[in-house]
Amino acid sequence: MPALFRPSSAERRRIREAAAREARMEVRFVVLQLGQRRSLTGRGSALNIAQISDDPAFADTDFDDEYAPWSAFADGVALTEEGKGIFDLAIRRRGDPDHDLQGHVTVYVTNRQVVRVCSCDTEY
After folding, report:
1. Is the predicted pLDDT of residue 120 greater than 80, yes or no?
2. Domain ranges, residue 89
3. 76-93 average pLDDT score
4. How far is CA 117 from CA 84, 96, 109, in A?
5. d(CA 29, CA 7)
6. pTM of the entire structure?
7. How far apart are the first and last CA of the chain?
8. In the chain, how many domains are there?
């Protein structure tokens, strides 16, 4: 059975601060949603990209337009049997009636610890 990852308060703060910098907004306005991706090679859909892709660039996956709330991530998400997780978090602005996407950050987990938080261009 795969292990669950629950980010520590320091890890949650690091992720939220990275998202705020990526979207150029104050942390208090950041709303994060955990994006689901689907495999283009028949491996299904998952919140943890590492469960459906071995490609470092995730080129064999696509966005599924399904999102889980930040609380689902904070409460615990499944890792691979090797203890790996790659999670794509959508950034939205609190109070935005259109819920427009402000950016993304990707969170990499190894051995139940956040080892990397980045966007396409920036390492946080």
Report:
1. no
2. 4-118
3. 96
4. 14, 25, 9
5. 20
6. 0.92
7. 31
8. 1
